[in-house]
Design goal:
Length: 128
């Protein structure tokens, strides 16, 4: 808790909700034809890293930085060609995952999704 204000992490239901989200999200990513060519690692590894990242992104425990240092997400994504079309596909997989776990109807879920959209836009590193 910070003062009397709940973090977004707490509002959405903490680690349990983030786990449900990554479990719903990555199977969609790994079966998306636009995204498949750049997701060559293991689904379990990326789920774990995304769980850790989202935890701290929403104001929960800084799990990602404890293990990997500064998030520097744009820099970490530079090895992968992220076109506007790939960013759109990433976001539509995420939107479906939000719906699947019942997060898209709540105000805090909408704020969370809005923040992901902002980060996704920053991740675009190719116009092809
Ligand atoms: C805009 C579309 C995006 C695409 C196409 C994309 C693609 C990728 C790819 C290909 C990887 C490497 C996966 C692997 O190691 O096999 C990755 C890693 C990762 N992505 Fe994204 N990503 C996108 C947006 C985002 C956003 C918006 C976030 C956070 C909110 C995010 C968080 C992460 C994290 C935490 C990792 C792991 C980084 C690490 O290696 O430590 N990504 N992403």
């Amino acid at each position: 808790m910070n003062g009397n204000f709940e973090t977004l992490y707490e509002q959405i239901g903490g680690g349990a909700t983030i786990q449900k989200l990554v479990d719903a999200f990555y199977p969609k990513v790994f079966s998306n034809e636009e995204l498949l060519p750049i997701f060559n690692g293991s689904m379990e590894d990326i789920k774990r890293k995304q769980f850790m990242f989202l935890s701290q992104f929403l104001g929960g425990p800084a799990l990602y930085s404890e293990e990997f240092g500064p998030p520097a997400m744009r820099q970490r994504h530079l090895p992968f060609e992220i076109t506007p079309v790939r960013a759109e596909n990433w976001l539509s997989c995420m939107e479906e995952a939000f719906e699947e776990i019942g997060l898209s109807q709540t105000p805090e879920g909408q704020l969370f999704f809005h923040r992901l959209k902002q980060v996704a836009a920053i991740m675009v590193n190719s116009n092809e």
